[in-house]
Amino acid sequence: MNIHEHQAKALLKTYGLPVADGVAIFTPHEAEAAALELPGPLYVVKSQIHAGGRGKGKFKELPADAKGGVRLAKSAAEVAANAKEMLGNTLVTKQTGPAGKQVNRLYIEDGADIARELYCSLLVDRSTGRVSFVVSTEGGMDIEAVAHDTPEKIIAVDIDPTVGVSAKDVAEIVAALQLDGSAAEDAKSVFPALYKAFVETDMSLLEVNPLIVMANGHLRVLDAKVSFDNNASFRHAELAPLRDLTEEDAKEIEASKFDLAYVALDGNIGCMVNGAGLAMATMDIIKLYGAEPANFLDVGGGASKEKVTAAFKIITADPAVKGILVNIFGGIMRCDIIAEGVIAAVKEVGLKVPLVVRLEGTNVKEGKAILNSSGLDVISADDLDDAAQKIVAAVKTR
């Protein structure tokens, strides 16, 4: 689960982290009053969407030379003018794709006198099985570009979970970020607090970009991006109200109701597969034959007929889908259950696009017999390669 910047900062503030004062607003008429609550005289008006690159983004409804999704203002009246222009409009960034995201809330924050911009994130390093700090002196920039062009500027520090952030770890991070004076002193509390917040709330990502050194020499969290591990949500009922459904794909929301692993993509071939690895391979082979998957959808190893039906309905509800590939290897999952779920869904919503089905494994003969006797216009495939070629060809001839 992702949350907004203002929510992330409010959470980090409870852990004692240095965060500027700010107020979230949802309507233009709240803007001026929000600014007047802050010290000023410089304010930052920030679009709150679940995407990066907001400062360089462009609003669809505004002229090309209009300011982006993060703006500076020098008076409460200027804050209000910016809020009126930004709220309700669609912001397009590198991470939103061309469709963009509608800005439904803003964060009015007190300005900061910045001396240096740094990068800091925490994530789980799968190779070590530990939480790792990833830091760089190149904050405020595209960290992917830094990693590609100057990887030596990115330093990772793994944290021993039995010890936590030690003085040695802090010293290593301080050296990597070239901190001294007040900033180095602040680091002794800032980095342990970041780690504590990450672990205690089961985050999967905590990114502070930039972490700044202010003109007075102290550290401040200037921006914060937080994602929580959905598998740990049962432990954190207090975080559930932070979820903003308007920022999520409607199909992904529906899939979550049935415990389906679903991610919407930009292609036109819908995929229903069991097993994450097989789902990735299915998407790869679709791309190999010159098409693009419309989704990642893993129905899991032991899905019921109802779950399969729901998955198929979610795929067919996507207007971008021009063909569907069902690729099932029956281990725990039985092929006849898949076949029954597909038939039930088609009877309910209809079938207006080509459907290719590849079944293999447990009860494969029964599954194929069910499909063959259903009267559906199903294209059968012998293996994954055959299935991918058939669905790509079927979509291209439409």
From TrEMBL:
List the catalytic activities from the record: GTP + succinate + CoA = succinyl-CoA + GDP + phosphate; (S)-malate + ATP + CoA = (S)-malyl-CoA + ADP + phosphate; succinate + ATP + CoA = succinyl-CoA + ADP + phosphate
Q: How is the cofactor bound?
A: Binds 1 Mg(2+) ion per subunit.
- Signal peptide range equals none
Which amino acid positions bind Mg(2+), per UniProt? 209, 223
Look up the record and report any one GO term of the cellular component aspect: succinate-CoA ligase complex
UniProt-listed SUPFAM superfamilies? Glutathione synthetase ATP-binding domain-like (SSF56059), Succinyl-CoA synthetase domains (SSF52210)
Q: Which InterPro entries match?
A: ATP-grasp (IPR011761), ATP-grasp_succ-CoA_synth-type (IPR013650), ATP_grasp_subdomain_1 (IPR013815), Succ-CoA_synthase_bsu_CS (IPR017866), SUCC_ACL_C (IPR005811), Succ_CoA_ligase-like_bsu (IPR005809), Succinyl-CoA_synth-like (IPR016102)
- Residue sites binding ATP per the record: 46, 53-55, 109, 112, 117
Q: Which GO terms describe its molecular function?
A: ATP binding; magnesium ion binding; malate-CoA ligase activity; succinate-CoA ligase (ADP-forming) activity; succinate-CoA ligase (GDP-forming) activity
Identify the keywords attached in UniProt to this record, alphabetized. Answer: ATP-binding, Ligase, Magnesium, Metal-binding, Nucleotide-binding, Tricarboxylic acid cycle
Which pathway is it part of? Answer: Carbohydrate metabolism; tricarboxylic acid cycle; succinate from succinyl-CoA (ligase route): step 1/1; One-carbon metabolism; formaldehyde assimilation via serine pathway
How would you classify this enzyme at the top EC level?
Answer: ligase
One of the GO biological process terms: succinyl-CoA metabolic process
* Domain of life, source organism: Bacteria
Pfam families linked: ATP-grasp_2 (PF08442), Ligase_CoA (PF00549)
Provide the residue positions that the database annotates as binding substrate: 274, 331-333
Q: How does it assemble?
A: Heterotetramer of two alpha and two beta subunits.
Q: Which HAMAP family match?
A: Succ_CoA_beta
Q: What is this protein called?
A: Succinate--CoA ligase [ADP-forming] subunit beta
According to its UniProt entry, this protein's organism is Devosia insulae DS-56
